[in-house]
Structure prediction request, 133 residues.
Amino acid sequence: MAGKDLYHHFITGKIDTGEKFEEHRQELAEMVWHKMESQASETCRSCHSFEAMDFYAQSEGAAKMHQMAKRVEEGLQFLLSSGALQDFLTNHPVTSAAFPLEKYQNSIKFDLHNPDLSPETEQLDAKFWLALD
Prediction:
């Protein structure tokens, strides 16, 4: 994808100045986001896997965030592999109101109250949705 940026910088002149780049920033960002979604961020994860990270070489803030993310991922893996995920969700204050799930068997959507999200959070934004297969 960087080849497109180089092409438009050097050949077409579409983004050859800071002002032109800013003018097309949203369009460029959306192309990258779409590519990341279509590949499940594989390009990023190839370098940013927890196994490839050197927490001691990172800034203190980055190391803390990555270590927390690793613990969350490991916790979810444990819940999935141990079969404890439903118990966790059934007893968690944010998700407990959804159970028993059978009451939603004819629904395509149900609301969960999350006290950690501000009331201004745009709930119609699909990035906040959980799709169950």
In short: The chain has a mean pLDDT of 76.
